[in-house]
Amino acid sequence: MNAAGILQVVIFFAVVTAGAIPLGAYMARVYSGEKTWLDPVLGPVERLIYKICLIKPDQEQHWTVYAVSCLMFSLIGLLLMYAVMRLQALLPLNPAEMSAVAPDLAFNTAISFTTNTNWQNYGGESTMAYLTQMLGMTVKNFTSAATGMAVLVALVRGFNRRQAKTVGNFYVDAVRSILYVLLPLAVIVCLVLVGQGMPQNLDAYTEATTLEGAKQVIAQGPVASQVAIKHLGTNGGGFFNANSAHPFENPTALSNLIEMAGELLISAGLVFAFGRMIGDKRQARAIYIAMALMLAIGIGVCYWAEAAGNPLVQAMGVDVASTDVAPGGNMEGKEVRFGVANSAIFAAATTGTSTGAVNSMHDSFTPLGGMVPLVNIMLGEVIFGGVGCGLHGMIVFVIVAVFIAGLMVGRTPEYLGKKMEAKEVKLAVLCILIFPLSILGFGALAMVLPAGLAGMSAAGPHGLSEVLYAYTSATGNNGSAFGGLSGNTLFYNTTLAAAMLIGRFLIIVPTLAIAGSLAAKKIVPPSSGTFPTHGSLFIGLLIAVIVVIGGLTFFPVLALGPVVEHFALAAGTLF
After folding, report:
1. Do 475 and 435 form a contact (C-beta atoms < 8 A)?
2. Among residues 266, 251, 126, which one has the least CA distance to residue 186?
3. Are 49 and 177 in contact (CB under 8 A)?
4. What integer pLDDT is reported at residue 324 of this predicted model?
5. Could you report the per-residue pLDDT of 432-478, keeping only the tens digit for each?
6. What average pLDDT does range 166-173 have in this prediction?
7. In 3D, which of 21, 33, 67, 308 has the Cα closest to residue 167?
8. DSSP per residue over 266-277, as a string?
9. Separation in Å, CA 4 to CA 8, 165, 238, 294, 341
């Protein structure tokens, strides 16, 4: 670690915070139905969409209807995307003449992009045509992100309303998320990325002749438009197989900073929007500080581990810092133009959120460095998390934290004037339990079945980490891969798809149930016995609850994977 790397971390947090605060204020106005400066332009478009789709914006929904609308919206999008991939060979904008996507891979990919996971068992430039990338991947990047944002808004209304039977209209919330937030930001970021040299065209692949006389095919296409929304919507699906390590997806140091900051921008902004919508900015600051502290610790550990390098290389007497190939630290699997610091920031940011894009290969990190992305997801994707889903996942932990605090002071736990009774606590615990049941259940299945073992490229603890990371990433709707696992098989395409559905919708439904339950409650004024939820004491309690639950659940399997690999590496054993 050095001063330049630490400065890059500071700049990253400064850029995110500076962008999130005004964006949060703007999103609060959007979701509260207040006028914004985009209304003269987008207002007529919004009304036209409602008219065409037969949406009644003034007709609100009970939480059960809201949930059904969310599920049906996602299901229809899933089926349409599956159809596009299966009919790809017959559709236009296919200059490389890609064939139809195999049924099991199309099934996995359609679920992946519908759940905002964007796990990819394929190479984009060698599997997907331009129309598939645009009509399938890019469109789903908008709609899946909007789904998570809509669910969060419904939950916020649950805190704001008194004895209400409705939590809003899902279709209105989704349309406003896309039209007023995601689309304008994506257009701006897309134009900036094109200015940095990122391709945005419909040209055929270019065939070049190398200096040795060999032929090389250079893929291109509508890259910038997909890259912009994949980061802003915390989607992460790469246009190219190498994702943001590819020079066309991440051409410069500035594009790298934009992509890293973009991953957190809306998720962080929604925290500040939450504070404005509930009328208490102190609550937003407390949650933001808790998220930022956990992310900063993750970045610090990952940066330290990668900067320390491989002990076996050091034992050989190689002066790593003086070599041209690896200018300091563990540079295996990393782009020299980004280095250790930016690779560590990107790895922590992409897994602290549910983005899943990568500018380096996590499989090549040191054991402890690679454990950080794994732990970030295991904590519940609440370190900012996905757009909308990260904050409503954090609020679930807040409910558990205030329940524990209520036990301490001998009162019924309260948060934002709403009593957290047995129903809310049970639903919150259900959301938390679903996560490890999916990860550990599917992971155990893959480790004992021949079909699962056949996909591993490494033996011992590293092979366990590959499998564990895959199901953690799928359940957490992250989409990044540890690498080394051959996932494009019937077994993994099916089980990973199931994990993605569980991690998305079996958490969204009880979250909406919490929203409905809270909306029906009265608001109780604070008293002398109310536990304050905006100070440093509560921030510490909230972080402790998240870490303890994650630690008790996952430490045993982590001890068998990256932890034992770390000690084995120090002893000279490789896997």
Report:
1. yes
2. 266
3. no
4. 39
5. 999 999 999 999 999 999 999 998 888 889 999 999 999 999 999 99
6. 96
7. 67
8. HHHHHHHHHHHH
9. 6, 54, 29, 22, 9
What is the share, in percent, of the chain residues with pLDDT greater than 90? 75
Residue 411, both tokens: 């009162």
Averaged pLDDT, 106-123: 93
pLDDT of residue 327: 47
Between the alpha carbon of residue 278 and those of residues 31, 85, 132, 294, the distances in Å are: 12, 43, 41, 24
Q: How many whole angstroms separate alpha carbon 328 and alpha carbon 106? A: 41
* C-alpha span between 574 and 570 (Å, rounded): 9
Q: How confident is the model at residue 570 (pLDDT cuts 50, 70, 90)?
A: confident
- Rounded to whole angstroms, how far apart are CA atoms 518 and 516? 6
Cross-strand pairs, 313: none
Tokens 């301490």 — which residue? Answer: 408
C-alpha–C-alpha distance, residues 130 and 221, integer Å:
7
Q: Angle, to 10 degrees, between the axis of helix 253-278 and the axis of helix 3-31?
A: 40
Contacts 24+ apart (CB under 8 A), 382-385: 382/291, 382/546, 383/291, 383/294, 383/295, 383/298, 383/352, 383/353, 384/264, 384/267, 384/268, 384/271, 384/291, 384/295, 384/352, 384/353, 385/234, 385/267, 385/352, 385/353, 385/354
Supply the pTM of this predicted model: 0.92
